[in-house]
Amino acid sequence: MDPLTSAGLALFVCGWAGLLARRLRRHHANGLFAIAEGLFCIDDIRLNDPLGTVFCAACCALYAYWWWHGGGGNGTKRRLRALRRKFQATRRTAPQPT
After folding, report:
1. pLDDT reading at 76 higher than 90
2. Domain boundary assignment for the chain
3. Which of 35, 32, 37 lies closest to 53 in space, CA to CA?
4. Quick one: what percent of the chain has pLDDT higher than 70?
5. Which DSSP symbol is given to 68?
6. Which of 17, 41, 42, 95 is 20 to 30 Å from 51 at the Cα level?
7. Averaged pLDDT, 14-40
8. Are 63 and 34 in contact (CB under 8 A)?
9. Cβ–Cβ contacts within 10 Å for residue 86, how many?
């Protein structure tokens, strides 16, 4: 078994074990599943398997979507909002004579 498949299976097993033992929340497990499916997709690309690549890419996108919308991307969303505030225009008016 090649290293990409082994790493993907290990992440998949860790995600399921964490869910069943109630040590991981659903969105954290979805994040692990998304990474595992990404590794499977890379391996399918390497093996020149187009059907497997499309299937794994779709699963990876679905798990990543569930992770992002389940609360997993909150830290990322907060950092992006803070970065956006730095680039927003600020209205500056000249001092008015008194």
Report:
1. no
2. 3-72
3. 37
4. 99
5. I
6. 17
7. 94
8. yes
9. 6
Q: DSSP letter at 10?
A: H
CA distance 45 to 55: 11
Cα 75 from Cα 67, distance rounded (Å)? 12
Q: Model pTM greater than 0.85?
A: no
Residue 79's CB is within 10 A of a number of other CB atoms, namely 11
Token pair 């059907």: residue: 51
Cβ(27)–Cβ(76) below 8 Å: no
Task: Kindly state the DSSP code that residue 54 receives in the 8-state scheme.
Answer: H
Residue type, 21: A
Please check the confidence at residue 38 and state whether its pLDDT lies above 90: yes
User: How high is the pLDDT of residue 79?
Assistant: 82
Mean pLDDT of the 39-68 span: 95
Q: Tokens 């830290």 correspond to what residue?
A: 75
63 vs 36: CA distance, rounded Å: 10
- Judged against a pLDDT cut of 80, whether residue 72 lies above it is answered with no
